[in-house]
Amino acid sequence: MLDLYNREITYLRISVTDKCNLRCIYCMPEEGIDLRHHADFLSFEQITQVVKVGARLGLTKIRLTGGEPLVKKGITDLVRMIAGVDGVRHIAMTTNGVLLQAMAAELKAAGLASVNISLDTLDPERYREITRVGSIEKVLEGIETARTQGFSIKLNMVVLDDTVIDEIESMRRFCLEKKIRLQLINHFSLNEEKYNNYTFDRPPKCENCNRIRLLADGQLKPCLHSDLEIPLDLDDIEGSLRRTILSKPERGSVCENRLMYEIGG
Questions:
Q1: Which residues contact 232 (CB under 8 A, 6 or more apart)?
Q2: 3-state DSSP call for residue 234?
Q3: Percent of the chain at pLDDT exceeding 90
Q4: Is the dihedral of CA 83, 89, 94, 98 positive or negative?
Q5: DSSP symbol at 190
Q6: Starting from the edge strand earliest in sequence, which strands make up the sheet with 219-221, in order?
Q7: In terms of DSSP H, where are the helices of the chain?
Q8: CB 27 within 8 A of CB 68
Q9: Which of 95, 124, 127, 203 is most buried, judging by how many CB atoms fall within 10 Å of its CB?
Q10: What is the dihedral of CA 77, 83, 84, 88, to 10 degrees?
Q11: Alpha carbon distance 265, 138 (integer Å)
Q12: What is the mean pLDDT of residues 76-84?
């Protein structure tokens, strides 16, 4: 389906939870977040129904995000349910990789095709500083397991203000050795005006944006860099998706009503 600016919208990013097992300095408050009730979030059956309707509208790529999607109980079941939807061509996941070693095989068997693994440095001490609680060894083990399972892998590296060129070059060498793709992400704030000419690979240029987002609490976001949200009407999913796509702005501005861990980037 085309939006009002003739962009073909083919990509649905689904945040399955706002919980995370890390506390990255640019994403999650150090003290964590208030716990919410299970009923506050969409069920797997509801998410799958959205995917079914979305696939009929041309949403053929699905990415599961969080928070951290691997902390969501039964996430493999959701992957399997989405994999069974006619019209879905690719299921991806963005994860911090901490739990990936234990879950990679079952995720692959369920139908997950690719993983983007967040890793901003190869230095264990700096990794601990950025994540506040993380152990880089678990992420590196997860990467190796994902490689042996045959996943298509990208490493998402957020380039912070104090990231030095040597860190980027070390990551380039690591990815070259492992035969995985490196994706450099400019550190940005949702409540600061988006500009359209970032230094690195992400965020994408607005004219190339082909995505909408479904949040865990049932709100649809036409644009990451916007406060605009469309409530999902489970009695009219197609109408909700159409309104979301047709509400997509020509370019992003600011988002002040959500924090990054609620949206999944």
A1: 42, 50, 214, 218, 219, 220, 240
A2: coil
A3: 78
A4: positive
A5: T
A6: 181-186, 152-159, 114-118, 90-95, 61-65, 11-15, 211-214, 219-221, 230-231
A7: 44-56, 75-83, 100-110, 124-131, 136-148, 165-178, 237-246, 260-263
A8: no
A9: 95
A10: 150
A11: 22
A12: 98
Q: Does domain 11-263 have CATH number 3.20.20.70?
A: yes
Token pair recorded at residue 13: 């990013």
pTM comes to 0.94
State the average pLDDT over residues 62-77: 96
Taken as a whole, the chain contains a residue count of 265
Name beta bridge partners: 93. 64, 115
In this structure, which amino acid lies at residue 22?
L
Establish whether the linkage from the previous residue to 252 is cis, with ω within 30° of 0.
no
Residue 205 DSSP code: P
- 3-class SS of residue 119: coil
* Secondary structure (H, E, C), 72-107: CCCHHHHHHHHHCCCCCCEEEEEECCCCHHHHHHHH
